[in-house]
């Protein structure tokens, strides 16, 4: 097996699969170290919006989080420590970028061209994650801006923002974290926000020594905390699936805005015109107070042009800036490497999916791409579920698939086209009545063709149950001539290994 990516998903896959006896595995990571999005995003204020107790692997719980919502550095440290603890370094190869991956039908193997030469393996696992490829500003004149310009995922720590006029473009999760973190040092902060977001207060508190001791030493304490916070998250998820139930949370968000922002003009600009949950729900107890500061200015408009140091909004207003920070997020619906992974008919994943965006069976398998498995693939996440919960459910499914391959003496597993089509039709039908689709907004949940490629339309419990057992009937299993010849020679199936 080859796992591409050493972030949250790739680390988890390497650990879990090796624990299940799949030791013939290598993890390729193009960066110099592991960590994924928690390695890359080092901007001020970067933190998780899922409670810390839910943001750790179930097999490696962390009772030592310092806050109820952990920051970037602490999460990155946790991932590195977990990888060290489970010996991921033994199979990790950093600085290796995948250039192309193609399926060899005759050999029943994947052939990868990388910056470290060629690799071949029976199984390919893409753990490249949805929060990886930055969505970059494309504004006339931005290239001629005379000061620093950088994306939040590529923060330039050499730039001193003290006493400077800083423009932040984007109103999503990263902007909500950055603006409060910058307002104490910048001379002025200008936030260009095309669309207002619903914001709830974030109960981000330090974990007291007493609570930390209980979590580490009292049997069941950490499990109980995880269960309680999981219940809260699932409560939001239930409301998102039944939009008529969103009202109380939306009223809470509106009251929080009213209590936090007293200027009626500013408050009106911060009030969304769609239902809560239609876009990613944001949590912050510092964003609204920062906007109340006299040197922090909200521009409720898109950035449409840059002329020298002057930034022009779509509404015709403008302001001067010394630094521009691109906080426009990631290309969520564009799977990294989708244009470079070729299936049985010679087409790439990107070409196979077309303009409607990614589809997969259970977010994991794609017809026409045998022995390819996607982690955190299409239609598995939502606005309320921890990515780690989803990942671990997928790893259970993946382990079942690989066990079936090994025990059955097969070379390939490929999901049946009709099964994939029926599953995705059911997903899209179920999404029609959720707030994700019917909430009255445009979000990254939706692909260019308007199809929801991100959200899971049912409960997290349903997801875990669906992925708990691998169903061979959904797949076509084949054995290549090479594998049959190996078996005839008495060589155990599945021991060809990863080759270079």
Distance between the termini: 13 Å
Molecular shape: globular
CATH class of the largest domain: Alpha Beta
Can you tell me the number of structural domains? 2
Give the strand line-up of the largest sheet. 3-2-1-7-19
Strand fraction equals 15-25%
CATH architecture of the largest domain: 3-Layer(bba) Sandwich
* CATH homology-level superfamily of the largest domain: FAD/NAD(P)-binding domain
| Radius of gyration based on Cα positions | 24 Å
**What percent of the residues sit in helical stretches (DSSP H or I)?**
25-40%
Oligomer: single chain
- Overall pLDDT metric: 93
Q: Count of helices?
A: 15
Runs in which pLDDT lies below 50 for 5 or more consecutive residues are: 490-496
Describe this structure in words.
The protein is of the alpha/beta class and 500 residues long. Helices cover 32% and strands 16% of the residues. The protein has helices spanning 8-19, 37-40, 72-85, 173-182, 209-217, 221-241, 247-260, 264-269, 287-291, 349-353, 387-408, 417-431, 435-438, 460-468, 481-488, and strands at 2-4, 26-29, 92-94, 98-104, 109-114, 117-121, 124-126, 149-151, 165-169, 188-192, 199-200, 282-283, 296-299, 303-307, 310-313, 318-320, 323-326, 341-342, 372-374, 412-415, 475-478. The strands form 6 sheets. The protein has a 5-stranded parallel sheet, with helices on one face. A 5-stranded parallel sheet has the order 8-17-9-10-13, with helices on one face. Helix 11 (387-408) runs parallel beside helix 14.
């Amino acid at each position: 097996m080859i796992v591409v990516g050493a972030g949250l998903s790739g680390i988890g896959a390497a650990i879990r699969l090796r624990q299940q006896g799949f030791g013939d595995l290598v993890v390729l990571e193009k960066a110099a170290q592991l960590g994924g999005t928690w390695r890359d995003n080092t901007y001020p204020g970067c933190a998780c919006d899922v409670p810390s107790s839910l943001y750790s692997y179930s097999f490696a719980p962390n009772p030592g989080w310092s806050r109820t919502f952990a920051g970037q550095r602490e999460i990155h440290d946790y991932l590195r420590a977990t990888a060290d603890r489970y010996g991921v370094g033994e199979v990790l190869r950093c600085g290796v970028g995948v250039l192309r991956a193609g399926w060899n039908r005759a050999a029943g193997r994947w052939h990868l061209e990388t910056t470290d030469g060629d690799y071949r393996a029976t199984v390919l696992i893409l753990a490249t994650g949805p929060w990886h490829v930055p969505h970059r500003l494309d504004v006339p004149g931005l290239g001629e801006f005379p000061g620093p310009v950088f994306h939040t995922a590529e923060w330039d720590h050499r730039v001193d923002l003290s006493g400077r006029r800083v423009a932040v473009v984007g109103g999503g999760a990263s902007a909500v974290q950055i603006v409060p973190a910058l307002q104490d040092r910048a001379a002025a902060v200008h936030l260009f926000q095309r669309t207002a977001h619903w914001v709830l207060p974030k109960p981000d508190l330090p974990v007291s020594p007493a609570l930390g001791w209980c979590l580490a030493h009292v049997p069941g304490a950490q499990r109980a905390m995880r269960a309680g916070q999981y219940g809260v998250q699932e409560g939001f998820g239930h409301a998102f699936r039944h939009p008529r139930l969103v009202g109380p949370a939306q009223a809470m968000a509106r009251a929080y805005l009213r209590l936090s922002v007293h200027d009626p003009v500013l408050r009106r600009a911060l009030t969304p015109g769609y239902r809560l949950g239609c876009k990613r729900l944001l949590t912050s107890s510092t964003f609204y107070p920062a906007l109340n500061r006299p040197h922090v200015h909200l521009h409720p408009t898109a950035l449409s042009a840059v002329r020298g140091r002057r930034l022009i909004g779509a509404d015709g207003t403008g302001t001067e800036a010394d630094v521009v920070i691109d906080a426009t997020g990631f290309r969520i619906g564009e799977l990294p490497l989708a244009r470079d992974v070729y299936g049985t008919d010679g087409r790439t994943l990107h070409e196979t999916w077309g303009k409607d965006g990614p589809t997969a069976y259970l977010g994991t398998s794609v017809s026409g791409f045998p022995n390819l498995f996607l982690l955190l693939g299409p239609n598995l996440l939502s606005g309320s579920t921890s990515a780690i919960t989803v990942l671990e459910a997928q790893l259970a499914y993946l382990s079942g698939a690989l066990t079936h391959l090994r025990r059955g003496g097969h070379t390939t597993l490929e999901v049946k086209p009709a099964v994939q089509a029926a599953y995705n039709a059911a997903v899209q039908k179920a999404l029609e009545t959720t707030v994700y689709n019917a909430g009255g907004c445009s979000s990254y949940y939706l692909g260019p063709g308007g199809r929801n490629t991100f959200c899971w339309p049912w409960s997290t419990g349903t997801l875990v149950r669906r992925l708990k057992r691998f169903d061979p009937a959904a797949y076509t299993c084949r054995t290549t001539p090479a594998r049959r010849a190996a078996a005839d020679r008495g060589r155990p199936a599945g021991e060809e290994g990863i080759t270079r």
